[in-house]
């Protein structure tokens, strides 16, 4: 008999699946409550797993009565539990912040379908975090892809349909590449379980056998996951998908979906291929090039936008670039920085999206900058949230963005070859970030001087009309400041978790 | 009736997605005469031509032409490169069918040798997907579920009457029903007689395939698809009114829910027992009998129900946006 906590990964995954099929019978309001309770439960269970693993080390849990290479298996560790907790708390906040918009923008009869999609999305994220088997990972990648499409398309206007189609095509391309990679890996090693593949790959690389196919396999898997998480040349689907979907979807997609894939990639690098083998291949240099380009071009595209939500979306491209930059440095410090950036970006980007919707609501739902002048005075809490998020993105001390930039710099110093380019790219990107985010902050805090007097829709939104929204934004700001101020214990957890990975 | 509704929708999407296009790009209303016809071919071609001329014109849109040429060249180059890489990779892979291949290892060996003893299923494939690797299949059946949900989101029409904005995209269920009746064959005797004979046979065959999933090739996915096909055939012959008497939205939802929930709960119990080394009290029975192989048969039935309902649901959604 094993400790009861070890069952929690199974309970979270099956709980998500059960609640999603139950929600298909429920009305929208009931489905909402099921969803909220589910996210809280999953978060609590992930917290227990994390604490348990801190004390007792990682564990594997067989799914069925047959042990691992024959049956399925999940694995719990500090990083897995921590990620589960973080993903579910960000998801809860995103849902709370966008509640009003969900009611407005989605047909009444389809409200419960939205919550089904969110439940399944949570399920796939949790499964991607815990899985120890590549094919299980692929199955849940499929669920993730389809439910993400639904999350975009559920707000039925022309642009979201177009965005969903585009997302579907690109994302399926990514899934296909990932699947081809998994198949080739199976052909080369004869296993689907991560730890067994790692052993075989170590043998193969020592003997020098199958060198070219192995390299191509790693390249395919990396490329597939990079397409799905919108690394620079593959980011064309991103601005529309994030920019026009209902706001909770945008927050979830930008802060969780892409991060789930990146977490899977990190897991594959550590637990499937082996960090040393990835480090020796040239692949990291290619990823480095793409991410450096992405950081700059993402920011440049964001500068050109005249639409606040598309601007925030494009800044995601740059931030995803940072994460891949950390991975491609090929050192443990770089990996820690990348994982921290996952947390920092998830916390900040969802806050920016949630705040942006408050600002546009106070401006006749117009997203153009000319209409947003002074909107922070009309919706005070949204303005505060957006300002805090912008400061974090630019990298001002006290906020989470500062710590992640600091970590990248520190990691770059240890990598002789990539130090100069990393420093230059980070410097340029900081300036570009400052230009477009500060421009927006200045714009929303410029006094309007009765510019919009009498125009319809430009109303003052008081705190008492949006209690939940206010609480959400305050928690978001607190989370950001907490990540910025108490980064040491979190970094400690991350590096412990990465050690448990290997 | 609404012969160009699809086209109008397309047009309004395009217009919405780019404000810079011509404002006066409207299509004139259809004549009274064409109201009940199928889309007139010449009008359709004219409409398409107009869109091509004004929106995707290469003459009026110079940057587009340049992009197009560049895009084509890069596409060809990239495809050639990719093909080359794949061919080189495949030529370096282990040879197909070689006995010393890495894939011929202890994993496959145990499936073949111990499969019958450990799962109780004579069909090894069923034993693998529903017992050894049941977690993957649990995920896979929810892939089907989420696909059905997304199709529902896109196609189900809930609005009884037109109201407010966006009506150009969302047509009402009443309109869709009228649209559907144009194409619905009314009392086609040949079709009805043939399906009267065939539908029961097909359904029984589907049930056979499901129930024998653990004994012979077959199982929930394939059997469910056969039953779904029979339901669709019945619908085509007798129309929505008659099918609705035994298969409406309520039945669809209940069956889907109970299938998936049973699957998840049963497997949760089995996983829990297996991982904690408890006795699950699920008997494997005598191999080869219909009531054997533990959970595999009930799971096959659950999957079969879900698949049949999903097939029928997809068809109904695509046809008129509801049941």
Fold blueprint:
The complex is a heterodimer of chains A (502) and B (323).
Chain A: H1 8-23, H2 28-56, E1 59-63, E2 72-76, H3 78-97, H4 99-105, H5 111-130, H6 134-153, H7 158-189, H8 194-207, H9 211-228, H10 238-244, H11 247-273, H12 275-280, H13 283-304, H14 308-328, H15 332-361, H16 369-372, H17 375-378, H18 380-394, H19 400-413, H20 419-444, H21 467-485, H22 487-501
Antiparallel strand pairs in A: 1-2
Helix pairs in contact in A: 1-2, 1-5, 2-3, 2-5, 3-5, 3-11, 3-15, 3-21, 3-22, 5-6, 5-11, 6-7, 6-11, 7-8, 7-9, 7-10, 8-11, 9-11, 10-11, 10-14, 11-14, 11-15, 13-14, 13-20, 14-15, 14-20, 15-18, 15-19, 15-21, 15-22, 18-20, 18-21, 19-20, 19-21
Chain B: H1 5-17, H2 41-54, H3 62-92, H4 106-119, H5 124-132, H6 134-155, H7 173-183, H8 189-211, H9 220-246, H10 249-275, H11 296-320
Task: State the share of residues found in helices of chain A, binned by percent.
Answer: over 70%
In DSSP terms, counting alpha (H) and pi (I) runs of 4 or more, how many helices of chain A?
A: 22
Strand order of the largest sheet of chain A: 1-2
Number of domains of chain B: 2
Counted beta strands of chain A: 2
Number of E-type strands of chain B: 0
Assembly of the depicted chains: heterodimer
Proportion of helical residues of chain B: 55-70%
Point out poorly predicted stretches of chain B: 18-38
- Let me know the average pLDDT of chain A: 89
Q: In one word, what is the shape of chain B?
A: extended
Mean pLDDT score of chain B, rounded? 78
Strand content of chain A: under 5%
């Amino acid at each position: 008999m094993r400790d009861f906590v070890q069952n929690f990964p199974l309970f979270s995954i099956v709980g998500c699946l059960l609640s999603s099929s139950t929600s298909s019978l429920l009305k929208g309001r009931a489905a909402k409550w099921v969803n909220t309770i589910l996210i809280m439960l999953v978060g609590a269970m992930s917290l227990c797993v994390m604490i348990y693993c801190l004390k007792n080390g990682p564990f594997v849990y067989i799914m069925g009565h047959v042990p691992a290479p024959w049956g399925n298996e999940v694995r719990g560790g500090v990083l897995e539990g921590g990620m589960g907790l973080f993903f579910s708390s960000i998801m809860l906040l995103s849902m709370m912040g966008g509640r009003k918009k969900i009611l407005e923008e989605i047909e009444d009869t389809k409200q419960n379908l939205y919550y089904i999609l969110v439940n399944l999305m949570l399920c796939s994220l949790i499964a991607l975090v815990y899985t120890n088997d590549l094919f299980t990972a692929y199955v849940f990648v499929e669920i993730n892809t389809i439910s993400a499409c639904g999350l975009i398309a559920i707000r039925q206007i022309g642009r979201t349909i177009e965005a969903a189609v585009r997302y579907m095509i690109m994302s399926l391309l990514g899934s296909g590449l990932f699947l081809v990679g998994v198949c080739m890996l199976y052909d080369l090693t004869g296993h689907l379980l991560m730890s067994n593949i790692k052993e075989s790959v170590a043998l193969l690389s020592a003997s020098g056998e199958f060198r070219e196919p192995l390299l191509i396999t790693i390249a395919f898997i990396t490329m597939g996951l990079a397409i799905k998480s919108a690394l620079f040349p593959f980011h064309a689907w991103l601005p529309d998908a994030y920019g026009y979907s209902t706001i909770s979807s945008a927050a979830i997609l930008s802060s969780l979906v892409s991060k789930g894939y990146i977490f899977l990639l990190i897991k594959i690098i550590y637990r499937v291929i082996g960090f040393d083998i990835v480090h020796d291949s040239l692949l990291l240099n290619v990823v480095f090039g793409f991410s450096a380009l992405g950081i700059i071009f993402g920011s440049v595209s964001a500068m050109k936008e005249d639409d606040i939500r598309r601007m925030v979306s494009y800044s995601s491209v740059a931030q995803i670039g940072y994460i891949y930059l950390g991975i491609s440095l090929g050192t443990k410090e770089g990996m820690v920085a990348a994982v921290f950036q996952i947390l920092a970006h998830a916390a900040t980007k969802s806050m920016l999206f949630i705040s942006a919707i408050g600002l546009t609501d106070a401006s006749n739902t117009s997203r153009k900058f000319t209409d947003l002048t002074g909107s922070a005075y009309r919706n005070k809490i949204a303005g505060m949230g957006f300002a805090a998020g912008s400061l974090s993105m630019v990298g001002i001390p006290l906020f989470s963005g500062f710590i992640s930039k600091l970590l990248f710099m520190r990691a770059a110093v240890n990598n002789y070859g990539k130090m100069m380019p990393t420093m230059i790219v980070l410097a340029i990107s900081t300036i570009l970030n400052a230009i477009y985010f500060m421009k927006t902050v200045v714009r929303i805090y410029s006094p309007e001087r009765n510019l919009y007097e009498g125009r319809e829709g430009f109303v003052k939104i008081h705190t008492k009309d949006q209690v939940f929204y206010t609480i959400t934004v305050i928690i978001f700001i607190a989370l950001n400041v907490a990540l910025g101020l108490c980064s040491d214990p979190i970094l400690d957890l991350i590096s412990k978790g990465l050690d448990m990975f290997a | 009736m609404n012969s160009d509704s699809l086209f109008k929708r397309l047009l309004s999407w395009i217009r919405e997605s780019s404000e810079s296009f011509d404002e006066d790009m409207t299509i004139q209303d259809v004549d009274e005469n064409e109201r009940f016809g199928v889309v007139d071919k010449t009008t359709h071609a004219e409409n398409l031509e107009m869109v091509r001329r004004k929106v995707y014109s290469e003459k009026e849109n110079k940057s587009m032409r340049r992009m197009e040429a560049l895009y084509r060249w890069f596409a060809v180059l990239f495809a050639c490169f990719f093909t080359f890489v794949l061919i080189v990779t495949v030529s370096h892979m282990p040879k197909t069918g070689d006995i010393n291949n890495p894939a011929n290892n202890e994993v496959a060996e145990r499936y073949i040798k111990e499969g019958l003893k450990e799962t109780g299923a004579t069909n090894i494939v069923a034993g693998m997907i529903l017992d050894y690797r049941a977690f993957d299949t649990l995920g896979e059946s929810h892939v089907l579920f989420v696909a059905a949900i997304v199709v529902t989101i896109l196609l189900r029409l809930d609005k009884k009457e037109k109201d407010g904005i966006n009506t150009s995209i969302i047509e009402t269920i009443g309109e869709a029903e009228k649209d559907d009746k144009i194409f619905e064959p009314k009392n086609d005797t040949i079709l009805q007689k043939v399906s009267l004979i065939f539908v029961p046979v097909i359904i029984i065959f589907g049930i056979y395939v499901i129930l024998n999933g653990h004994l012979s090739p077959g199982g929930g996915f394939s059997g469910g698809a056969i039953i779904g096909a029979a339901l669709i055939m019945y619908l085509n012959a007798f129309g929505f009114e008659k099918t609705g008497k035994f298969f409406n939205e309520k039945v669809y939802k209940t069956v889907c829910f109970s299938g998936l929930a049973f699957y998840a709960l049963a497997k949760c119990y089995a996983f829990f027992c297996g991982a904690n080394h408890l006795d699950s009290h699920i008997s494997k029975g005598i191999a080869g009998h219909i009531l054997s192989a533990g959970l595999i048969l009930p799971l096959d039935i659950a999957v079969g129900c879900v698949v049949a309902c999903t097939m029928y649901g997809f068809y109904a959604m695509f046809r008129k946006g509801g049941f």
